[in-house]
Structure formats: C-alpha cells, structure tokens
C-alpha cells in the first residue's frame, strides 16, 4: 500500500482511479482547510457530487474539521480525480487512526476501483464499435 507517515502530525497516502493519481497530505496542525492543486476544493470541483465523493471518508469517520488537507492530483477527468482523492484520504486516515479500518472497509472506501478504459482495437472505430453491417 502506498501510504506512509510523513511526520508526527502529517500523514501521506496515494490514491488512484481510472487514469487519475492523487497524492494526499493530512496535517493535524495549522488552519483547517482543503486544497486541491493549490485551489480550494469547492473551486476545483464545481459539481456537488464530486465534492460529496471526496468528503465521504471524512464524514464517515466524523473528522471533517480536524485536518488541513492538501491534495495534488494529475491525469483523468474530474470523476476519476475525485475517486483518487477519496482513496488517498481513506488510506491517510488509516495512518492517523488504524481503528477506522473496519468502517472504511465495510463501506468500500479502501478498495481501489480496478476499472480502466478499454483500448481501441485495430480495424474498428472504438474499443468495441464496429462498422455498420450491410448485406450486399
């Protein structure tokens, strides 16, 4: 698992989803805030569903106002990035408090979603789409 303790009060973890990779730092010290790629989370994720996905592990563990969270995410779209940050936060919370493992595991927040985009095949229009059939 790609999670390690950065310092006594800072916890680091990596999360992935689709083509997105997120690096997440949870800090128990300092001002309580949430930034994604240097901008506030509400500004970075304009959709309410993306913000809800990112906050799921914090709401489950009742620690929404306990950490300063900094996330750096690359690749993929907004949906994949939100899922990657969610996994990163879940893994970092385990570094903070290992007793959260059963509740996070039960809700599926520690499972990496393995679904990836299927590659385009030679001679076809897409991954599965073929040309229109005509009977000659």
UniProtKB/TrEMBL annotation:
<dbReference type="InterPro" id="IPR020568">
    <property type="entry name" value="Ribosomal_Su5_D2-typ_SF"/>
</dbReference>
<dbReference type="Pfam" id="PF00380">
    <property type="entry name" value="Ribosomal_S9"/>
</dbReference>
<dbReference type="InterPro" id="IPR014721">
    <property type="entry name" value="Ribsml_uS5_D2-typ_fold_subgr"/>
</dbReference>
<comment type="similarity">
    <text>Belongs to the universal ribosomal protein uS9 family.</text>
</comment>
<dbReference type="GO" id="GO:0003735">
    <property type="term" value="F:structural constituent of ribosome"/>
</dbReference>
<keyword id="KW-0689">Ribosomal protein</keyword>
<feature type="compositionally biased region" description="Basic residues">
    <location>
        <begin position="120"/>
        <end position="136"/>
    </location>
</feature>
<dbReference type="InterPro" id="IPR023035">
    <property type="entry name" value="Ribosomal_uS9_bac/plastid"/>
</dbReference>
<protein>
    <recommendedName>
        <fullName>Small ribosomal subunit protein uS9</fullName>
    </recommendedName>
</protein>
<feature type="region of interest" description="Disordered">
    <location>
        <begin position="104"/>
        <end position="136"/>
    </location>
</feature>
<dbReference type="InterPro" id="IPR020574">
    <property type="entry name" value="Ribosomal_uS9_CS"/>
</dbReference>
<dbReference type="GO" id="GO:0003723">
    <property type="term" value="F:RNA binding"/>
</dbReference>
<keyword id="KW-0687">Ribonucleoprotein</keyword>
<dbReference type="GO" id="GO:0022627">
    <property type="term" value="C:cytosolic small ribosomal subunit"/>
</dbReference>
<dbReference type="GO" id="GO:0006412">
    <property type="term" value="P:translation"/>
</dbReference>
<dbReference type="InterPro" id="IPR000754">
    <property type="entry name" value="Ribosomal_uS9"/>
</dbReference>
């Amino acid at each position: 698992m790609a999670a390690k303790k950065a310092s006594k009060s800072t916890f680091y973890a990596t999360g992935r989803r689709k083509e997105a990779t997120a690096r997440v730092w949870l800090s128990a010290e300092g001002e309580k805030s949430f930034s994604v790629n240097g901008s506030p989370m509400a500004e970075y994720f304009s959709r309410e569903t993306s913000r809800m996905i990112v906050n799921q592990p914090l709401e489950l563990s009742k620690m929404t106002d306990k950490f300063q969270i900094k996330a750096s995410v690359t690749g993929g779209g907004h949906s994949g990035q939100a899922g990657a940050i969610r996994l990163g936060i879940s893994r970092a919370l385990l570094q903070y408090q290992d007793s959260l493992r059963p509740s996070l595991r039960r809700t599926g927040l520690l499972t990496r979603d393995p679904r990836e985009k299927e590659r385009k095949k030679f001679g076809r229009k897409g991954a599965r789409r073929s040309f229109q059939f005509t009977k000659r």
